[in-house]
């Protein structure tokens, strides 16, 4: 039992990293798979309580019961219905004071003729800014949606004489604040097991009986203790997994975002591209300020020979809102097609060289860069790809839309990035731009694994000497920046997510690769790359099909992060 408690505590600490960042901002889908106990007078529950009780005490600040059940196999109510292991309840508790808990308006039940203690089941909740829904095994149970006047109006609470504690907040209040998870296996109680219910052998205590309930319960142990069958694990509350899934759609567009499409667009001034003049992408409020001013990343003036960046695109990062250490990540996306588009992961240091040819990425950077600058603190590229449909390398292989790459970047210096030791590729003859695919990562204290559509791609597990030993870096003359940390360093710190669609670059599109119509710029061509790229637009712009389709859009269905 002690070992189990420690394991759960460790799990909850990891999970809280997700909850504290996600529940408040995004509203999640929660899923727990478990097998219930089979015990007399034992109750199990998975529930959520407010982190800060910002609306005062219970139930003003709310309570969400994802699942409650009783362990009695043959407990029946006055109607003859089994209210033990055959019954599951999901409930929302809310009200202005403890004696006006309006839970009965937001309560749902589901029955199983075989009992929920026989097998594992999925208990699910979807929580949005508009409502809370419960399901079991993907079968909808109930949705509770307050009217415009919120739960106060739903409960007709104006007639109670109490003040409305939620009147200055959203209609979902009190369920518009951060909540944390509780798992518990309890026994007895003063109300959950009805006095009127029938159970073989009776019930050894009376609800509301004060502290004598403990005495009465123990004296009746010959009736209930054999039902626990402690020689087996039937009395155990077994949890397979808990998943908190990011529910909201990310909007990732600079100028015209619909349905989570991230689409490149031509830099314009008065409706046409302006090669000269000044381009400033800073907004008028902190929320819309440019976040990467390095190398004219936020403001730039073009000339007749060095044009302004021809292309505007988008990047979304969660550096201030969500970060995690260890877990599983899954992104379902449909990649763009269009010459020189680059969807996926890209190092922020070089972001000012992009905005030339499209590329996309899904990647992770360290929250604090605790081991110093890139790549010493690491970078995780879940997925990178190129948008060219017919980009061919010197071996005759398609390295455009038919190829996705997953990579770890690490090393003691920017000139000693050892990514080639932790790089994997996967090909699809039909192209990753033609359908939706799942890009997956499992990150543990021992290794990092990548998969595509549940098909394992690669696992990178450093030896006991860590990535320093993996890279044979003793011979480089650099100091080991990770020597006092775990073998997974630098991948033993919190990372945040980046999603981006970029264009061009100074390295990602090889000069030697073959593309219909050629490549309009040279890598390392300096700022003249912008000029050359724009002058070659008759080659690449038609491949984007901007006025015909949304093929050039980086489409994201969902991003999910959960604890292992």
TrEMBL record:
GO MF annotation terms: hydrolase activity, hydrolyzing O-glycosyl compounds
Spans through the membrane: none
One Pfam family linked to the record: Glyco_hydro_16
The GH16 domain, residue ranges: 157-564
InterPro entries for this protein: Beta-glucanase-like, ConA-like_dom_sf, Glycosyl_Hydrlase_16
GO biological process, one term: carbohydrate metabolic process
Protein family: Belongs to the glycosyl hydrolase 16 family.
Protein name from the UniProt record: Glyco hydro 16 domain containing protein
Organism name: Asbolus verrucosus (Desert ironclad beetle)
